[in-house]
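Q: what sequence does this backbone want?
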C-alpha cells in the first residue's frame, strides 16, 4: 500500500492510451472520433468517478441524524460494504471514500454530534484510543513514515460533513506529493479501497 512512483503510472497510461505518429502521439479516443478537434501536447487522466464528489452525492441534506448522514448509515452496513475497518463501543473507523492517500481513514463516533465539545467522556477517550490503533495498523501494514491527524469542525473550516464529527488519519510517505496532485489535481492510488480495508482490518491491534 506504500506509494509507488506516480510518473511510471502516468507513462503507462500514455503508452496504453496513445499511438505514435512520427514525433507526436495521438490519443486513441481522438482516432476513434475521427480526429475531431485539434491535438495538443496535454495528456489527460479521465476520472469520471470523481463527479459524485464534485456534485456532493451522498452528502446530508440537512444537519439532522435522519437527513441522509452517511456516518449514521455506515454502521448499519456490513463492514465490507461500508468500508468499516474496526468497531468499538462508542466509535468506529472507516476508510475515506475520497482518500488523499491510500489508507486514509476516519475515526467517527456513532452518535450524531457536530462538535468535539459535544462528545462525552467515553466517546472522546475511545476516539483517542482508536486514533492510536489506526496509527499502529497503518505503520504495520503500509510502512507509513508520518501522518496528518485532525478534524475540520464546521463548514468554514472545510468539513465536508459538518453535522457529524470525524477525525481524519492520513498516512504519509516521502515523495507522496509530486506534480500529479500539485499541478494536475489528480491523485494516483495503487490499491482498491476494499483491499485496503481488509489489510487494515487484519492489522488492527487487539483491544
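A:
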Amino acid at each position: 500500500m506504500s506509494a509507488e512512483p506516480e510518473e511510471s503510472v502516468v507513462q503507462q497510461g500514455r503508452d496504453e492510451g496513445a499511438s505514435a505518429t512520427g514525433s507526436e502521439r495521438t490519443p486513441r479516443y481522438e482516432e476513434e472520433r475521427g480526429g475531431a478537434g485539434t491535438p495538443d501536447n496535454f495528456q489527460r487522466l479521465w476520472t469520471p468517478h470523481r463527479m459524485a464528489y464534485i456534485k456532493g452525492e451522498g452528502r446530508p441534506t440537512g444537519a439532522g441524524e435522519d437527513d441522509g448522514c452517511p456516518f449514521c448509515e455506515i454502521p448499519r452496513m456490513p463492514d465490507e460494504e461500508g468500508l468499516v475497518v474496526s468497531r468499538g463501543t462508542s466509535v468506529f473507523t472507516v476508510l475515506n471514500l475520497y482518500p488523499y492517500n491510500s489508507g486514509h481513514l476516519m475515526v467517527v463516533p456513532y452518535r450524531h454530534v457536530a462538535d468535539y465539545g459535544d462528545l462525552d467522556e467515553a466517546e472522546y477517550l475511545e476516539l483517542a484510543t482508536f486514533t492510536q490503533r489506526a496509527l499502529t495498523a497503518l505503520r504495520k501494514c503500509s510502512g507509513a513514515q508520518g501522518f496528518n491527524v485532525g478534524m475540520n469542525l464546521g463548514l468554514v473550516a472545510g468539513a465536508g460533513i459538518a453535522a457529524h464529527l470525524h477525525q481524519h488519519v492520513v498516512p504519509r510517505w516521502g515523495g507522496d506529493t509530486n506534480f500529479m496532485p500539485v499541478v494536475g489535481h489528480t491523485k494516483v492510488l495503487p490499491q482498491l479501497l476494499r483491499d485496503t480495508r481488509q489489510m487494515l482490518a487484519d492489522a488492527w491491534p487487539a483491544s
